[in-house]
Amino acid sequence: MTKLKNDTLIRALLRQPTEYTPVWMMRQAGRYLAEYNQTRARAGNFLSLCKNPDFATEVTMQPLARFPLDAAILFSDILTIPDAMGLGLYFAEGEGPKFERPLREEWEIQALTVPDPNVHLRYVMDAVSQIRKTLDNQVPLIGFSGSPFTLACYMVEGCGGTDFRQIKTMLYQRPELLHHILNINAQSVTSYLNAQIESGAQAVMIFDTWGGALSHNAYQEFSLRYMSQILAGLKREHGGVRIPAVVFTKGGGLWLESIANSGCDAVGLDWTTDIGEARRRIGDKVALQGNLDPFVLFASPEVITAETEKILASYGNGSGHVFNLGHGISQFTPPESALTLVDAVHALSRKYHQ
After folding, report:
1. Residue 174 annotated as catalytic
2. Catalytic entry in 36, 154, 192, 315
């Protein structure tokens, strides 16, 4: 297998020595870039953008043309799996993702099946292969999926941005039904991520966007348990190379030790957790990814640089840190602020790796 020209991200995720702290940004290919909006307009809509490997490759590469990032991340959506299950994903203008057939009836839940990623999600695998070829081993490609619980939230509620009434009612009233959904989702995510790895993904990430909405006990039972199941079933080597896995629970700062014990190589942090404290708690076990508040990027270059330095200083000396935002970059972010961040991480982090 051809060696990566820049493998800093992979080495950091595996807590191997690096010359500087690598950086990428969640949602780095997105609406804050004019060229993304132009490609999306050509595609016609968001789903057409995701489902066309040529367009997905084009937008994945756009931020790398602008910024010296240390990784590319597959351009796709976390809801590809429930869409492949036949729930009827669509995007209402200005309202985000919705499903035509949310899971409300027991027979619908019992009828759920695991989609074959190489058949029902072939467009994703084709995009991974094409992006990997286009990258030409300049930087690694990250594949990803939503977590079983986060997917279930959309599948049961029928949309995002809810108060979780439907899914939490099911959780407490009919937990066996939710466990059935989660088990199907976990099997689906495992095969989906493994197919991405076989198609060329060099690291994978599980986005547990809504795990932080759960109580302490419910998080362990209904979210982390199923992410651990996925991690146990993932291909951790491909072509003789280690494939690191990252778990990111938004609002998961209370459960860092449990997440670190899930079998992942790295724990993603949102901006509410001090990264130095997180390192003291779990940093000898796994790498850490994060965790600048995305809204820092609306401040001046001086403030962006100062806030970046705070996080680097808090993490301290040595490897095992991948710099990122604490969640996705806002669509209103000035692109020059993203460049300021990337340059600051590269310049300021070197002293922590001597």
Report:
1. no
2. 154
11 and 43 part of one domain? no
Residue with tokens 């896995």: 245
295 and 187 co-located in one domain? no
CA distance 179 to 51: 30
What are the Cα distances from residue 227, in Å, to 230, 248, 252, 346? 5, 10, 13, 32
Region for residue 151 given its phi and psi (left: phi exceeds 0; alpha: psi -120 to 50; beta: otherwise): alpha
Q: Among 235, 265, 298, where does a domain finish?
A: 235
Q: What is the pLDDT of residues 44-80, one digit of tens each?
A: 999 999 999 999 999 999 999 999 999 999 999 999 9
User: How many domains does the structure of the chain reveal?
Assistant: 2
Residue 1 has pLDDT above 60, yes or no: no
Q: Which of 235, 264, 279 is the last residue of a domain?
A: 235
The structure tokens 């993932």 sit at: 234
Global pTM reads 0.97
Q: How many CB atoms lie within 10 A of CB 239?
A: 11
**Catalytic residue, candidates 31, 122, 281, 350:** 31
Question: Is position 40 annotated as part of the catalytic site?
Answer: yes
Residues recorded for the chain? 354
> 137 lies in a domain?
no
Q: Measure the CA dihedral 205/217/150/111, to 10°.
A: 120
Whether 77 sits among the annotated catalytic residues: the reply is yes
Instruction: Kindly report the backbone phi and psi dihedral angles of residue 344, in degrees, each rounded to the nearest multiple of 5, phi listed first.
Output: -65, -45
Expressed as residue numbers, the domain containing 215 is: 34-59+72-127+145-235
**Angstrom distance (rounded) from CA 234 to CA 265:** 12
The string of pLDDT tens digits covering residues 193-206 is 999 999 999 999 99
